[in-house]
Amino acid sequence: MGLEKSLMLFPLLVLVLGLVQPSLGRESSAMKFERQHMDSAGTGSSPTYCNQMMMRREMTNGSCKPVNTFVHEPLAHVHAACSQKNVTCKNGKGNCYKSSSALHITDCRLKGNSKYPNCDYQTSNYQKRIIVACEGNPYVPVHLDASV
Questions:
Q1: CATH architecture for residues 28-147
Q2: Euclidean distance between CA atoms 111 and 42, whole angstroms
Q3: Is the pLDDT of residue 2 over 70?
Q4: 51 phi and psi, to 5 degrees?
Q5: 93 a known binding residue?
Q6: Which of 59, 60, 108, 114 is deepest in the core (most CB within 10 A)?
Q7: 128 is in an annotated binding site
Q8: Number of H helices and number of E strands within the chain?
Q9: Which residues bind substrate?
Q10: Residue 35, annotated ligand binder?
């Protein structure tokens, strides 16, 4: 009888695991934001910083991401932007917010003659405010919309 129950429950277990498993390895939007944009410990001062970081953060897999910005501030400072004055995002959505102060950032721009797999980036450092799109509960950055 115990074996019969186990055999009856097995298909149900397979169904549940099939539904749950794909989401286990999926990167959340907030985690992707951190991977692509946060480097609290870095300074971005090396001319090869962007080449190294874009590769390390998996933004040169299959193609070269044309533009990316790294923020060199504590994550809490970036999260704080989500409680600032609301601004319209570039895509017209209303979930963007501008940081209250300028932050240390590094812009990485793909050089014109650069082609995959040899992605070559120009590294530029700035002190600028950032505009981030925020979502979720807790309300956290999920997209870096601009630096101004």
A1: Roll (3.10)
A2: 22
A3: no
A4: -60, -45
A5: no
A6: 108
A7: no
A8: 4, 7
A9: 32, 35, 65-69, 90, 109
A10: yes
Mean pLDDT of 44-52: 96
Single-letter residue type at 131: I
| Three-state secondary structure call for residue 89 | coil
129 is in an annotated binding site: no
User: Active-site residue among 37, 72, 77, 79?
Assistant: 37
Residues 6+ apart with CB under 8 A from 23: none
Tell me the three state secondary structure of residue 144.
Answer: strand
Has 111 been labeled as part of a binding site?
A: no
**Beta carbons of 90 and 147 less than 8 angstroms apart:** no
Residue bearing the bigger pLDDT, 10 or 139: 139
**Cα Rg of the chain, angstroms:** 21
Amino acid at 17: L
> What type of residue sits at position 75?
L
CA atoms of 35 and 23, how far apart (whole Å): 18
**Is the entire prediction scored with pTM above 0.70?**
yes
